Amino acid sequence: xxxxxxxxxxxxxxxxxxxxxxxxxxxxxxxxxxxxxxxxxxxxxxxxxxxxxxxxxxxxxx
Length: 62
Hints:
By secondary structure, this protein is mostly helical. The chain is built from 1 helix and no strands.
């Protein structure tokens, strides 16, 4: 195996690793967005910067 083939092979492996890191990051972002959408539809507050009790049920019968 000549030197250029080895260098080319190493660069290809680095590019594949970078693509995999980007793909993992995008998948996590999509999963977080889906989770937030489901929590919004269910009416539960997500992990936003809300004070304790915000988004809970309010008893107006009293």
